Amino acid sequence: MNPIKKTRTQNILQVMQAISWLTFISLLVQTGILAYSFLIQVQINPESASELYSGLDLFDTITKTPVVYYLITISIVVSFIFKTLLLYFVTQIFAKIKFERPFTPILSVIVSKMSYVSLTIGILSNVSLRLSQAFLDAENFSVMNEFIKGADAFILFAGILFIIAQVLKRGVEIQIENDLTI
Q: Does residue 3 belong to any structural domain of this protein?
């Protein structure tokens, strides 16, 4: 018996699947750490706002304008949650794709969801960036910019994903029509 030989594309996709899972788990841990440190600051120790995460010091903001602090940190945490969700959808694509019938309704739905999540990330990131620009000092804004970079890229990515979702949707329709004519 000859085992079925995998194509080069299948091997590449298998490696990409492993990388997407590792990236998803890494971002999931980062999101958890960020959410946990924010909750600690709110509930237990507001002074720890000077060490939110990766050098972000929002202690002055929490003491002067707590509402702005909460808006900024919540938008960062929610943005990270959506980025994690986006990577989860990537892992689901690898789990659902079938080479025999590549155009499936579920794949179209997943890519469509990815476009909406990406748009949400872009909008949240822009809001966070504008709030940070208005209320943080230059050093903290620079650090915050590292957290939120790529807001416009996520909006562009959302548009591209939306187009791909529409192409996949049409591919499903054509595939179904071909099945009916055979």
A: no
